[in-house]
Amino acid sequence: MRGLHADAGYLLYRLGLRSGQLFNTFLQESGLRLRHYAVLRYLVGSEGALQRELSTRLGYDPSAIVGLVDDLEKLGFAERRPSPDDRRSRIVVLTEDGRAFLRDTDEAGRKVTNELLAPLDPAERETLQTLLLRVADQP
């Protein structure tokens, strides 16, 4: 086991699994999963996105995005609208119900993060956040 724990990629994978499990447990009541939440979180920072943009930015297969957006539409959290730039395209936008859902889940997100990062002091958490952003922003 020592060899695996020396591998940063493996440790990040394990941390991602643990984070996903904790968050999915919280989201279970709503019927959503972390992938749905990621789409909503992306949309909150934009005025809408094409499905192919969601696929690229979130790293999900385009066919998975279709299903995720379908689920979010059924719940009233997102909707597809005609793109102002191209009438053949549709953009996905966050609805007011979607925004309310995200506000309601903010506390849960903090709890998941606090549980995951409990062994770290505030300065270490800030350093970890900075380093993860630097690594995540690579092409």
Q: Short description, anyone?
A:
By secondary structure, the chain is mostly helical.
CATH superfamily: Winged helix-like DNA-binding domain superfamily/Winged helix DNA-binding domain
Detail the poorly predicted runs.
none
Distinct helical segment count: 7
The tally of structural domains comes to 1
Q: Can you count the beta strands?
A: 3
Query: Structural class of the helix and strand makeup?
Result: mainly alpha
Radius of gyration: 17 Å
Shape: globular
Commentary on this structure:
This protein is mainly alpha-helical. The chain is built from 7 helices and 3 strands. It has a single domain (2-125), classed as Orthogonal Bundle (Arc Repressor Mutant, subunit A), CATH 1.10.10. It has helices at 2-5, 8-27, 34-44, 51-58, 62-74, 96-116, 122-136, and strands at residues 49-50, 78-82, 90-94. Helix 3 (34-44) packs across helix 5 (62-74). The longest helix is centred in the C-terminal third of the chain and has 21 residues, at 96-116. The relative contact order is 0.11.
